[in-house]
Input
Amino acid sequence: MMMTLYDYPRSGHAHRIRLFLSIIDEPYESVNVDMQKGAHKDPEYRKLSPLGQVPTLVDGDIVITDSTAALVYLAIGHGDEKWLPRDAEGAARVQRWLSVAAGELYRGPVVARAGRQFGRPVDLERADGECKRLFKWMQQELADRTWLAADHATIADIAMYTYVRVVDEGDIDLDPYPAILRWLADVEELDGFEAMPRAEK
Ligand SMILES: N[C@@H](CCC(=O)N[C@@H](CS)C(=O)NCC(=O)O)C(=O)O
Output
């Protein structure tokens, strides 16, 4: 049976999963949860996602309500081992970035875009500071390495990609960080790459 992704086109968290499903060439059904209409807070949807969040990945009777958890699920169940190394050090190096994807990446780029693109009431000054701190560090990390967590692409790169790519929608310029721009382009060269939809201008 095909997996189902409870999805929303402008959700970067959902895009992470779409991107990886496309890369590992796994067919799935996409169900649009209309966040603009608040469908993610419907009681029916909350039976799947108690926090009322998008995305949710459903595989038979297995329900996964978190984008990085879904990447782990897909990497182990459906992907090649290289996407999530199984040795202790390799797995920890990937997890380090999955934590960043739910932590620093959220507090900086995700919040800056939520405020400037979607008009959410957020602390933009704080988000801008978080972006600077994160991007300075990523620039250093990627200056002498192609991929974030191994000598090949892993789900760390997939988890981090989307919100870094669209951070201009939060009015953050990546020009001061050439190694990050090079890394984004490398992710976009992966077989099966699928772009994040942009705001209509
Ligand atoms: N930790 C979750 C976060 C997902 C998330 O924040 N999704 C946003 C949409 S991009 C959402 O549903 N926000 C509504 C809310 O949290 O109430 C994940 O990685 O999937």
About this structure: The radius of gyration is 16 Å. The longest strand covers residues 3-7.
